[in-house]
Design brief:
By secondary structure, the chain is α/β, with parallel strands linked by helices. The protein folds into three domains: 168 residues, Rossmann fold; 127 residues, no CATH class; 110 residues, no CATH class. It has a five-stranded parallel sheet, sandwiched between helices. Helix 15 runs antiparallel to helix 18 and helix 17 packs antiparallel against helix 18. The radius of gyration is 28 Å and the shape is elongated. The two termini are 36 Å apart.
Length: 421
């Protein structure tokens, strides 16, 4: 299951769009760095990019910098078998002269090097980019430089805003919807429809932007809330996060629930949060905007942050299902007892609901519906709906007060509804 999910991420629309944009920039002669958070395996992204290069007939040369030792410009000269500074030209000019049939040189293995060596390669990449810019208009066009890598926070600061190359960010991949569709493919034939729907909705909402987390919590999505919270905490510890780090990042001061209204935020991590993005503590999805990682919230002693995130994940599935069941019950009661059944024997306590049920019997809410089924003798023949009304009322109240519900409680609602209708 795990390998299947990781491989399928590159088939998601957001990943394909990002890789296509990198290839398009290369075709325009730009050097590009595709940056991803630390701890992510770059190899799959590199292969996806190479596939795109091949499809677009972009000639590329793959260069593993771990195999080179010494000053990067001179290493490049040796690798491409050209004289450094030949005829008074710079080493990188000599390298570019030796690559007439190459459109792009793809560097790999950079994030495996010591920080000081990474810094030298970053500086070399800047010179490469500026050299290409100074030679625009030449034929053949000088080879661009491309690298898929993670970088230390201090190096992210060094390259941010540099005009010698373009930056692309592994940000918002996969979205919540994409992850939900990918998770749907992983459901076993033995799983019930209720289990499948629960895993899809809750797993995707909790783990959008991090398929590795989705893999980790997948077996526990239908377990108890406490078990899910414990497994989320275990994932955070596995990633090397601590409660102190989470508090320093500001997670305990609240977090976003809404989609972003800032277009730039959908393209790259906010500058103030790039350190946390690099640690995977911050991610983005079109559904929820820029937000803190669910597993990071699980490290906090105060469970309200994790529980609120879990409620949001559950609500997208449970609330529409509750409305569907309530409407079915109201329809049956209206067919048998007319449109006045919600108020002819007993009215609800809330003035707003009293007005609404006179306009439509389908406006009768769970609390009043349950009360009528329990207390009104004229509805004794409909008493079979009382367990269903009680279960619906409990679930609705829990989510309304930001208390997540157990999977077993939702499964019981679905089972009761199936028997009742």
């Amino acid at each position: 299951m795990i390998e299947t999910l990781r491989q399928q991420i590159l088939d998601s629309s957001s990943a394909r769009l990002l890789i296509r944009q990198v290839a398009e920039d290369v075709l325009q002669g730009h050097s590009v760095w595709l940056l991803h958070p630390a701890g992510r395996d770059a190899r799959a992204i590199e292969l996806g990019l190479q596939y795109e290069f091949h499809a677009r007939h972009i000639a590329y040369h793959n260069l593993d910098v771990r195999e080179l030792e010494g000053d990067p410009p001179r290493c490049l000269c040796r690798h491409f078998e050209t004289d450094a500074g030949r005829n008074g030209r710079s080493p990188l000019d000599s390298v570019l002269d030796a690559l007439p049939d190459i459109d792009v040189v793809q560097l790999t293995g950079l994030d495996q090097l010591p920080l000081a060596t990474q810094r030298r390669w970053v500086e070399t990449a800047k010179i490469w980019g500026r050299t290409c810019q100074s030679r625009q208009g030449e034929s053949p066009r000088p080879a661009a430089l491309c690298c898929v890598t993670s970088l230390a926070p201090e190096l992210l600061t060094d390259i941010d805003g540099d005009v010698s190359f373009k930056l692309a960010w592994w940000w918002g991949v996969p979205s919540g919807l994409e992850l939900r569709l990918l998770l749907r493919r992983l459901d076993s034939d033995e799983a019930t429809r209720t289990e499948c729907e629960w895993r899809e909705h809750v797993g995707a909402a909790l783990a959008s932007g991090d398929e590795l987390f989705a893999e980790h919590i997948w077996p526990e999505l239908t377990s108890t809330i406490e078990r899910l919270r414990a497994e989320s905490r275990a994932y955070a510890i596995q990633r090397g996060w601590t409660a102190a780090q989470v508090k320093a990042a500001g997670l305990s001061n609240g977090f976003r629930h809404h989609a972003t209204s800032n277009p730039l935020e959908a393209v790259e991590p906010p500058a103030a949060n790039r350190r946390w993005w690099n640690d995977c503590l911050v991610h983005f999805s079109w559904e929820y905007g820029c937000q803190w990682h669910t597993a990071g919230l699980a490290l906090l002693d105060d469970t309200q942050f994790f529980d609120s995130r879990l409620c949001r994940a559950q609500a997208a599935l449970v609330l529409p299902r509750l409305d569907e069941v309530r409407h079915q019950m109201c329809h049956i009661l209206t067919e048998k007892h007319g449109r006045k059944w919600p108020y002819c024997w007993c009215e609800p306590a809330a003035p707003e609901e009293r007005e609404e049920i006179r306009q439509s019997p389908y406006a009768c809410q769970w609390g009043h519906l349950r009360h009528l089924l329990l207390k009104v003798p004229a509805l004794r023949s409909e008493r079979r709906f009382e367990p269903l009304a009680t279960q619906g009322w409990k679930l609705r109240n829990s989510l309304a007060h930001a208390r997540p519900v157990e999977y077993d409680a939702f499964a019981e609602l679905c089972s009761l509804a199936e028997r009742a209708f």
